């Protein structure tokens, strides 16, 4: 590349990175996103327009300040997430002086960019603090995002924060768990909406896969109930965008579900052996002098043992466990 990159060339590379993120290998996408960041710097699009003369003999293209900010912000968003997903170093332009893009009516780029400060909290080289990560997760979950690509970014960030906190032995309960299950549902719906519109975005396959992983980790009735839609969405992505990356994601998700099924079958077999060893027997008839409330309690238990078909198993998790996930 002999000439300095132009804004059109940078825009083309952004589209290339989005495509590789969706349909290519993770390594190829990461390399492309790193090149994109260096192209921004080479084009001088990482800084606000300045009247100061450059010490280098470079003829800088006249590019609107707002366009600079948007090109840089989207490129940084892509580079951060591709790097984090692979555990590779991200490309940081320390001399960048750009401000955040301004909000426009009918444009939602600012929603995406406002997530960047919380995304950098997940940098592997940054010292993690549980309280800070919990605060970031709460903020991200409470945000309102308007369009599918923005919702996918919100969902992806929330799921990554969840998994990082879980690795630090943090449990989620009550309202925060409900919010997590709400954002996973929104993420599935957003991915399907983008697929139906044939308007691909780079989180389109990644989010359904991450949702499946998190739902399997939560492992409650409400979480397992979402797995069908998540797998169907991931299967639809693999059908429409039939690449090695999407097929591998679908196969890996199926394998994870199979492993979870085998684990549950083993647990169920152990429980079955216990029930066989200690079978349920009807309680003896009570004497007339027994207290009335004891009689009612024993009748309820006998009825329950006699017919478990009407038992609401969805409440069993809450009954047995005080914390989830």
From TrEMBL:
CDD domains: fungal_TF_MHR. GO terms for biological process: response to xenobiotic stimulus. GO terms for molecular function: DNA binding; DNA-binding transcription factor activity; metal ion binding. Signal peptide: none annotated. Coiled coil: none annotated. It comes from the Eukaryota. The keyword Transcription applies. Keywords: DNA-binding, Metal-binding, Nucleus, Transcription, Transcription regulation, Zinc. PANTHER family: 2-NITROPROPANE DIOXYGENASE FAMILY, PUTATIVE (AFU_ORTHOLOGUE AFUA_2G17430)-RELATED, ZN(II)2CYS6 TRANSCRIPTION FACTOR (EUROFUNG). This is Transcription factor domain-containing protein.
